[in-house]
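hiii, so i know i said id send this last week but things got crazy w the move. better late than never?? heres the sequnce for the chain we talked about at the cafe, plus the structure i predicted for it. fair warning i was half asleep when i ran it
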Amino acid sequence: MSEVWLHANRRLFVGPILVAAIAAGALAMRGAVAPSGLGWWIAAVAALALALVLFMWSRRPRLAFDGRSLLLYIRNGSAIAVPIEFVEAFLLGKGPTYLSGKDDYKTEARTLIIRIAERAEEFAKLETNVRLAAWCGHYVTLRGTWTEPLDIDLVNRLNQRLYDTQQKLKNPPSLLAPCGRGAGGEG
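okay and structure toks below
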């Protein structure tokens, strides 16, 4: 199981989930009283399925760690796995929101920038969902609109977690007790 490092912005999903759930209930009630309510029931099930899919999306993290790689959930489908030794730092920035109906040049949100080592040439440019993130060179910019609230404390915690994880992987704890006195054997 992966350790979540950055959650999605769950607040964005509350309204659409409620609308889909209320619609499912209304459609089911209509199907219960309609003489031939099969169509209403099918629509109710579809609305309920939409509510469940939205709920699952709201639970999907933006960043997670699987024990070896940083998982970036910034595109449709599977996560992008970047080996943790290639992740150099997390930075706080600002960028366009990319919200529908907004002038992107006037509305800004905080961003989380992930610096990837230049020696990791395979991670110089990858495709992302442009609304969630941009990948340019060895920098990945996550749009704060789609993440939990970003601030300097969160970025500092991410950098500390990154450092601790990299140190732990460089110096794994020994599974064997040292030989000699105090290890259960004769010295």
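btw The CA atoms of residues 47 and 134 lie 32 Å apart. thought thatd interest u
miss u guys!!
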